[in-house]
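Hi V.,

You were right to ask for the full record rather than a summary. Here it is.
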Amino acid sequence: MKKTIITAALLMSLISFAQKDELKALKKIYDKDAPSVKDIASFKENLTKAEPLATDEGDKLYVAYYKAYAPLLDASLPENQKNPTAFFSKFSPDAIYSIAKSGDDVVQYEKKTGKKLLSDDILEQDPQMSTMLLNYAVALGEQKKEKDAAKVLYALYLMDKTKTDYLYYAASYSVNGQDFDKAMEYYNELKKINYTGEKTIYTAKSKINDKQEPFNTKAERDQAVKIGTHTLPKEEKEPSKKGEIYKNIALILVQQGKEKEAFEAVAEARRENPDDSGIMLTQADLYLKQKDIENYKKIVGEILAKDPNNADLIYNLGVVAMQGNQDAAAEEYFRKAIAIKPDYANAYINLTAVRMKPDKDIVEKMNKLGTSAADTKKYDQYKAQREKMFRDLLPDLEKAHELMPENETITQNLISVYGFLEMTDKRNALKASLKK
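Predicted structure:
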């Protein structure tokens, strides 16, 4: 009996030594700046041997990380480095997430044990790699692959947890991709780290493409203006996204049929941030969605009493009313915002959108008419109704275009209105300007 126990202990010791040898071999190849094809084959061979032998927590985490990292070794070969298409053919959003998640697991484990083996290397970000992954995420989003884009963005956040904007955008893409469980996971993490997203955006107009371009810092922007590549420097404060985060949490809960929890989530947010107007707007929006007009008006009153001349607040009230199909109230708020801030481009854009909403219904009615005398009379009435509506909103639409000429929707709407009102010269001039 005693001999059997000793033999078993010796066997476990030999397995452990073998496993440690394989882990050492993996680490040695992992540390190489330019592993060869032979090195990569050896890495995969040692990984295959080590995987079934890993028994304790640390070894399992290291093997999992090396396994996730293996495709990156293939991608690091010179022929793949020079070709982004070949580089990313070695990956998928799931593979990128696996590298980031297993890397984060190792970092957290080494923090817990106090023994560093891979942490410093995992946390040392390659700017070129980060840029490539970010561009990849954007491309996935443009292809309407929102869930995959969210995975890559969350992976970028795991690789560098100071880049909290990536977590915020991962949540946003998850919402767009209808992956509400993941969105809730990310939003809750944003709440936990007390993310606000507040920042100042520094831009200047490029002399090359005549467009406002963003810069990472004020110093970079000022330098571009100084050397003459850019003009018209601007600074824009990006407001807190806390209200939006709580709003989306509440809306997801409503979507999931958890309305009570939605109200509780917003109530909790207000307790923690009683003066956050964004959260108050979320609460007002919930009341509006529930058709609880009295409580909606009460919250709106609190918002306006707090800061009656805040154009952004009033504009946001207009957005909430617009989303709740309270078009008359939305128009009133947008006009108030413009009265306070005459160059408020987004207020003009939404004001014209609200004022043009009836057009769809009028056109549908016109299209259903026949050719009888009675229908012809109705057609003329609808046409006159459209003409009056377009003439009334034309000054606002022109102002919106003046303030934001790059907005394609506004430009196309203005071209259409000019055409309907037979303002041929203005229509042709605007169309010609698009071709320059």
